[in-house]
From TrEMBL, chain A:
SUPFAM superfamilies: Mitochondrial cytochrome c oxidase subunit IV (SSF81406). Component of the cytochrome c oxidase, the last enzyme in the mitochondrial electron transport chain which drives oxidative phosphorylation. Belongs to the cytochrome c oxidase IV family. It comes from Oppiella nova. GO terms for biological process: mitochondrial electron transport, cytochrome c to oxygen. One of its GO terms (cellular component) is mitochondrial inner membrane. InterPro entries: Cyt_c_oxidase_su4, Cyt_c_oxidase_su4_fam, Cyt_c_oxidase_su4_sf. Keywords: Membrane, Mitochondrion, Mitochondrion inner membrane, Oxidoreductase, Transit peptide, Transmembrane, Transmembrane helix. Component of the cytochrome c oxidase (complex IV, CIV), a multisubunit enzyme composed of 14 subunits. It is found in: Mitochondrion inner membrane. This is Cytochrome c oxidase subunit 4. The lineage of its organism: Eukaryota, Metazoa, Ecdysozoa, Arthropoda, Chelicerata.
UniProtKB/TrEMBL annotation, chain B:
Component of the cytochrome c oxidase (complex IV, CIV), a multisubunit enzyme composed of a catalytic core of 3 subunits and several supernumerary subunits. The complex exists as a monomer or a dimer and forms supercomplexes (SCs) in the inner mitochondrial membrane with ubiquinol-cytochrome c oxidoreductase (cytochrome b-c1 complex, complex III, CIII). The lineage of its organism: Eukaryota, Metazoa, Ecdysozoa, Arthropoda, Chelicerata. Belongs to the cytochrome c oxidase subunit 5A family. This is Cytochrome c oxidase subunit 5A, mitochondrial. Pathway: Energy metabolism; oxidative phosphorylation. It is found in: Mitochondrion inner membrane. GO terms for cellular component: mitochondrial inner membrane; respiratory chain complex IV. SUPFAM superfamilies: Cytochrome c oxidase subunit E. It is a peripheral membrane protein. Residues 1-19 form the signal peptide. Pfam families: COX5A.
Length: 186, 149
């Protein structure tokens, strides 16, 4: 029986290919995908890091990440060879190069202040100021007039009536008025 | 190489006391075994002093100790630096010293004391402290990825 080639419409064929690739990658995870090894390029895996996955990150509480920061090139490989010898022969520049090969930021750079608090404070104060401005605009253009009873004259009259009627004589306003001498207590 | 170490880690302390503990990475010893500070130090010194230590193991021990609420004794630091020498990694030494400085942030005298105590080892192995490399202050700056537009 001859092999029959199955001709599918183009869209279906593409779907089948994608499905096959997905099934393939689910069924057989290549050892390069564990822990993200396929994503790190040529960088050397050197440690456990935070949780075993091959990620580089600068964190003060995990001093040694799982991978080196940069990929090796000829210059660094030569330096690493020299590193196998006596370290007293390494110059300061070479030591710095070696450090920057393995790590992105030093601890001083990690913990350096960013000045972010200034932009945050500025933003917060700007929003609070705009709230005050909103109130001013509302008061000027939106709210109607206050009732008559809030005017000073009305309130004075109201106070005099309250004294006359002995409102709150024990601890309130009338307790502050000396009725025998017809004046306010000191 | 690291899968071998995973096996050793899992075997851990079930082999009982005595012998070199292949996994010093447990902050609290299991099975109710309490140990003194000298035993703790000695455990890590023995671990670092292994002749065949691997870069992976050095970093794991350093990360584990870094997670504990302590600053390592000078003799443990010396053993760690010698282990770094054995795996031929100078950057690791500098990073470790920076990490110790960060651990002693509440009391800067601790870092000065440790540097003073390990100065003979630093001179013998030719290790530069971070300050000698100029890494006491920030040298380069990294743009905040959240601010990149």
């Amino acid at each position: 029986m001859s092999l029959q080639v199955l001709h599918l419409p183009k869209g279906m064929k593409a779907m089948l290919l994608v499905r096959k690739k997905m099934m393939g990658s689910i069924g057989t995870v290549g050892c390069n995908e564990y822990h993200g090894r396929s994503k790190i390029g040529k960088r050397e895996v050197v440690g456990f890091g935070l949780n075993g996955s091959f990620t580089y990150f600068d964190a003060p509480d995990i001093p040694m990440p799982a991978i080196r920061f940069r990929e090796p090139n000829t210059e660094i490989t030569a330096l690493r060879e020299k590193e196998k010898g006596n370290w007293k022969e390494l110059t300061v520049d070479e030591k710095k190069k070696l450090y920057r090969y393995s790590f992105c930021r030093t601890y001083a750079e990690m913990e350096a202040p960013t000045g972010e608090w200034k932009s945050i404070t500025a933003g917060v104060l700007a929003i609070v100021a705009s709230a005050f401005w909103l109130y001013v605009l509302l008061k000027k253009y939106v709210y109607g007039p206050m009732p008559e009873s809030t005017s000073l004259e009305w309130r004075k009259k109201q106070r005099d009536w309250m004294i006359l009627w002995k409102v709150n004589p024990i601890e309130g306003i009338s307790s502050k008025y000396d009725y025998e001498n017809n004046k306010w207590k000191d | 190489m690291y899968s071998l170490n995973v096996v050793l880690v899992l075997r851990g302390l079930s082999s009982g006391s005595g012998g070199v503990d292949p996994n010093p990475g447990l902050a609290v010893p299991k099975h109710g075994r309490k140990e003194t500070e000298e035993e703790f130090d000695q455990r890590y010194i023995n671990y670092f002093n292994r002749k065949d230590i691997d870069g992976w193991e050095v970093r794991k021990a350093m990360n584990d100790m870094h997670g504990m609420d302590l600053v390592p004794e000078p003799k443990v630091v010396v053993a760690a630096l010698q282990a770094c020498r054995r795996v031929n990694d100078h950057a690791l030494c500098v990073r470790y010293l920076e990490a110790i400085k960060m651990k002693s942030v509440g009391n800067p005298q601790i870092y000065a004391y440790i540097i003073q105590e390990i100065r003979p080892t630093l001179d013998e192995l030719g290790i530069s402290t971070p300050e000698e490399l100029g890494y006491g202050e920030p040298e380069l700056a990294l743009a905040n990825p959240y601010d990149m537009h």
